Predict the 3D structure of the following.
Amino acid sequence: IDYIDKGEKLFSSENGNVLPAGADFMHWNIRVKQTRTLNKDAIEIEFEFPQGWLDYQPGQYLTVSKWLSGKHYTRCYSLCASPVHRQLKIAVKRIPNGVMSSYLNDQVKPGDQLSVKGPFGDFIYPCKENVPSNHQLVLIAAGSGITPILAIAEYALQSKPDVQVDLIYANKNVASIMFLEQLQNLQAQFPYRLTITWVLEQGSDLLHAYQGRVDQDILKFVLNTSSTPSYVYICGPEPMKNTVLKQLDDIGVQKHQVFVEEFVAKTIQPIGALHNVDISLSDGQQHCLQVAGN
């Protein structure tokens, strides 16, 4: 085992880059195969996939870690390609003052190594319950929330011939849309099974988009186009997510039909008695943490 970047491990033995057949988890340093600019603030990164294959489900994410300026950063990025493609891709949107997102957008290049772990997440399609083969799949995304939604859409269209896919994709303007050409090509490839409703804050005749935000009228229109059971997947910023969830509830969509990916991890409230945990560091520092029973 070689050590690079302050202790991150790279398996360099003869079989160090070979995954067991059907592996469902990895934690390796792997090389960047290629990058592709999606817009001025977002990039797609494809990794050199090891021999073998990683079993992941559309909608899941990886963690990516890197030492930068003496600090270790780890961030979560959704896989943006269907498992059918056998390509390991993530998309990264630049966050203001974001160290990791800025590094990945501005500096990472083919051949660079990143510590990658995963897959993680239960925002998956198909969901765990028994879903009928013939159903409507409504996908609602805003901004970079398209990343896992794209993987889900591709998988459903390529692997579920009886599924109708309706995508609602909201953005500020045309220039901010991620995967624009790829989505248009997908729609051309599946013209009778994929519809895309573009929603832009700044209207444009280019895409015949709705101007404004995702509202109840748009949701009603999309959901009323199918007589089959509907399953709704939502990924986007918190305000959009909360608004759409309320609108779906008002329309009468059942909660078990709705699946939401959280952009930001929710803070878990402590339950039960608090216990003191004393921590001694190698430099002599002493700390005491209070840990709840949960």
